[in-house]
Design goal:
Layout: E1 11-16, H1 23-30, E2 32-36, E3 46-51, E4 57-69, H2 84-93, E5 96-104, H3 112-117, E6 128-129, H4 136-145
Parallel strand pairs: 1-3
Antiparallel strand pairs: 1-6, 2-5, 3-4, 4-5
Amino acid sequence: SGLERNNQSDCWIVSSNATYFHIDECIKEVGHVFWRQHVNAAVGDQVYLYGTRPECRIKYLMEVMAVDLPFSENMNDEKYWDLSQTYDARKKYNRFMKLEFRRKITTPKLVLSELLKHGLKAAPQSPVRISQPAYAELLDYIKANE
């Protein structure tokens, strides 16, 4: 990506909308997911998947296994998408990262209201890099409670 990164991995919160994509089934059946990549994530980065309404909480810890992948038919997750046009738009996007399941997170301590108390600015919509000084308290809180 041209931007040099130190060798410490980053941590992200990425939101997942169950209206469009059935992440629970995908993780249970496949164990990984190919995610549209809007950020310069790197292999080894940690990604907390945040379920949007009605859940409003962090649900999974994932690890980035591959980045900058072009769309491929063998990504094979169309059945987890609710609206085919969402899937078609996704194909055109053509930059994905592979997220591998690490842990399911069920604690009530990582619901939106608690995350907001510990430094999250708003409900996550676009990816948030929480491994930066502005989010130090939030990252510590998540790590302590995941």
